[in-house]
Amino acid sequence: MALFDAFAVITVLDAGAPGWLVAVTAVVIAAAGHVVLRRVRARLVNPGSG
Predict the structure, then answer these.
(1) CA proximity to 2, closest of 41, 38, 32
(2) Residue 14 included in any domain
(3) pLDDT value at position 28?
(4) pTM over 0.85
(5) Alpha-carbon separation of residue 12 from 3, 28, 29, 34 (angstroms)
(6) Among the four 8, 13, 26, 50, which has the fewest Cβ within 10 Å?
(7) In a domain? residue 40
(8) What is the C-alpha separation between 29 and 7, in angstroms, rounded?
(9) What's the rounded Cα separation, in Å, for the pair 43 and 25?
(10) Which are the contacts of 33, defined by CB distance < 8 A and separation ≥ 6?
């Protein structure tokens, strides 16, 4: 997830976006990744509850 976040931030930086947009992109991707990983982990631990 961190690698994907880094690629996204680099892409936004290369596009010439302002610093605040780079920060927002990083936070949004990190938060989304956290949610996705929690859901995947919950399904792996409790396969019948999804």
Answers:
(1) 32
(2) yes
(3) 94
(4) no
(5) 14, 13, 12, 21
(6) 50
(7) yes
(8) 11
(9) 27
(10) 1, 4, 5
CB 33 within 8 A of CB 4: yes
pLDDT beyond 90 at 50: no
- Residue with the two structure tokens 């956290």: 34
Does residue 50 fall inside a structural domain?
Answer: no
Compute how many other C-beta atoms are within 10 angstroms of the C-beta atom of residue 12: 19
Angle CA(43)–CA(26)–CA(44) in degrees, nearest 5? 10
Q: Which domain holds residue 11?
A: 2-45
Cβ contact 26:8 at 8 Å: yes
Q: Domain count for the chain, please give it.
A: 1
